[in-house]
Amino acid sequence: MSIQKVTFEGGNVTSKIDSDLYHFLFSSDVGILEGLKSECGYTLANNTITFSDGYVSVYGRIIYIEHQTTIGVTPDSSKYGYVVLGVNTANNTINLYLKEQTGGYPSLTQTNLLTTAGLYEFVLCAYTKTTTSVTLSSYSRKLIQSDKKRVNDLDDNINNNYLPKQQTLNRVTGGTYTFSV
Asked: Per residue in 129-174, pLDDT tens?
């Protein structure tokens, strides 16, 4: 056992050490970095899903989705599907691919990459398809907010809901008043 320089000139930082630190700094969240670039927005036209640029963090592994990244969906059968960003630390690869299934959305492999090398599948968007069309489906994507935004939102919540507020009294009769809540 020894000590190791991490943020020093000449330090030898492995991707595992770097990703552990990023995962901690992103509050142990997995998702799209909110407010940075275009947050991996997407559109569908002519059976092709096109993404705008953005960053995704999967257990601290940072992936940049380039603007105009596309993936085609073939309307050859009735299925539910995801566009998946696959992060595989076992073989040090990232891939964008479709994962489909009939009767419902497919299950995902989501290995805890902090403790085990393996595959984590992160959904960028969901769709359904038939033999004639492809339609985007509603899917709640996980966004990672900056700590500053989280603190500001919490501060606003406290100010709006818990701090004393001055109320205006309305006199009804002598000694009787009302106020609005």
From this structure: 999 999 999 999 999 998 888 889 888 888 888 777 777 888 888 8
The secondary structure of residue 108, as a DSSP letter, is: -
- pLDDT more than 90, % of the chain: 66
d(CA 87, CA 177): 64
pLDDT, one tens digit per residue, over 23-36 is 988 889 999 999 99
Entry field: residues in the chain: 181
Beta bridge pairs of residue 95: 86
One-letter amino acid at 34 equals E
Q: Give the pair of three-digit tokens for residue 88.
A: 């595989």
What does the alpha-carbon distance between residue 49 and residue 72 come to, in Å, rounded to a whole number?
6
d(CA 96, CA 69): 10
What is the chain's alpha carbon radius of gyration, rounded to the nearest angstrom?
A: 24
DSSP annotation of 79 reads E
Structure tokens at 117: 């090398």
